[in-house]
Each structure stands twice: as structure tokens, then as C-alpha cells.
Amino acid sequence: MWSGQALSQFGAQITELAIPVLAVLILGATEFQLGLLNAAAVAAFLVVGLPAGAWIDRMRKRHVMIVADLVRALALAMLPLLWWLGVLEMWHLYAVALVLGIATVFFDVSYQSIVPSLVRPAQIAEANGKFESTHQIAGIAGPAIGGWLVGILMAPLAILATVATYIASLIALLFTRDNEVVAEKGSHDPILRSIGEGLRWVFGNRLLRRIVGTTAISNFFSTISFTLLPIFILRELGLSPRRWASSSPSERSAASPAPSPRPTSCAGSARRGRSRSARSDSPWRGCSCRRPPSYRRSPSLFWSCRAS
Fold it and tell me: Taking the alpha carbons of 8, 10, 16, 22 in that order, is the dihedral positive or negative?
């Protein structure tokens, strides 16, 4: 399970970069559309987050994770297929983001509570430490790998790498042994009562109540920043996905990536004299490339011409 989750963590980082690039550079998403895309991605955590915990207590967690990996792989595989057919639109991204969010909620809740059924009690802390260390390493190295893949394969094809990691995670889970015993039907309280007990326990604890409050405030404002970050970096500053990914996590989270060491006329014209029109706001305005190559057809030529 550890090896499978290590791969899927890296894959998730690739998609986290590739989908905004796909929306901004290929589909020309506006700020509002990118906001809807992010809203679809996180809506599942708000809508099904609480009942998911109660439902998963009634099911085998490893089986839930297998189904979630399968759903995520199939949903993501639709994006490169629709792009290849030439019919990809923003509403497809909304639908895929919503499905991914729902599957991720069920996967994450099971992932965080399955460890006691995999190892002995004395090994739980070590197992959780290994999972967390893998998650942190993926958060550092994953964006760099994702930027490299997006730069050479284009965003839709880079998503296939994430599909492969989810399939690898699914296979690893199939060969994982656990000793989880699911309680018999009828032994659980009704779902609404279980949710109420969980909420009372969390908000009745002074420390947990403060953690929930600070986390909610932090998530609210960081989501605003992360929503506009792809447009600011890719469209306003005119940086490539590889340059975006090469910035440190702190720079990306603060929405302040390092400026390009070679200020170009193309990117510079995008920063000056902006109009309200999306087309007149294009960073190609004033560029020496009269007919810029299509990012969809040749991403390498796209960025090399943009920097000329």
C-alpha cells in the first residue's frame, strides 16, 4: 500500500498542475470559469464530507479505496480523450473535477483510518510517519515532474501519467492484506445521529474547535489565492508551466513566483496597457511572432517563440 500511495501522490501533483494549464492555455478559461472549476473540485468536501465518514464506517475501507481509484482513473482518462477528439469544453472539466472531488473524499477518509487494520498497534506511528513523509516529498518533487511533463507532452497527455499512478495504486491495494472487521448491519447508529455525535465531539473539545476555526479561515483565503494563481502566472506574467512548477511551494502559495530572468517583449506587452477584452489582453500582443504556434500542437515551439 505504501508503494502504491507514493505513486498516486506524485500523480495527484501532476494533475494539480496540468488541469489549470489545460483550462487557462488551451481552453482560454476566464477568472469566473476558473473559480467554478475550483468550486467543483472542493464542493464534494463540503457536501459529502460528513456523511462519507459515517458511510465508510459501514464498509471495508480498502474496497472503498479501490473503487475510488478506479473512478478517478476513468474520470481523468476522459480529458485527454475528449481533447484528442477536439470536443473538450470547460463543462467537461467541471464534471471531472466534481467526480474527482467525491472520489477523493471517500479515498482520503478511508486512507486516514485504514492503518490500524494493516499493522500492529506498536507500528501505527511509524506507518503514519512513512505515509506523511511520502506526501511531503511528493509535494516538493511532484510539481517539478508535472511541469516537465506538461512542457514536453502538453497538459492533456500529462494527465495520463496521473491515470497510470491511480491504476498502480489500485493494483497495489488489490494485493494489500488487511484484518479489518466490519461491524454487522444494525450495530451502527443512524447516519444523522453518527454525524451529530461527531460534530458534538469535535466542537465540544476546546483545542479541536480552535483547529477547525483556524483551518476554515486559512482554507477560505488560500482558495481565493490559488484560484487566480494560474491566470496570474500563465497569462499575466507569461511564464511557462515548467517555470511555474519550478518555483518553490512557498512562492506558489504566496502567489509571487520569481520573475523571468529574461524579460521579453511578448510578456512585457502583456503587463502594460491592459484592456478589459480577453483577446486584446493576450500576451502575444506586440510580439515579434506574427503567427504564434499553437500550444496544443507544439508546446515546445510555443514557449520558445514566446521567449524570442
Answer: negative
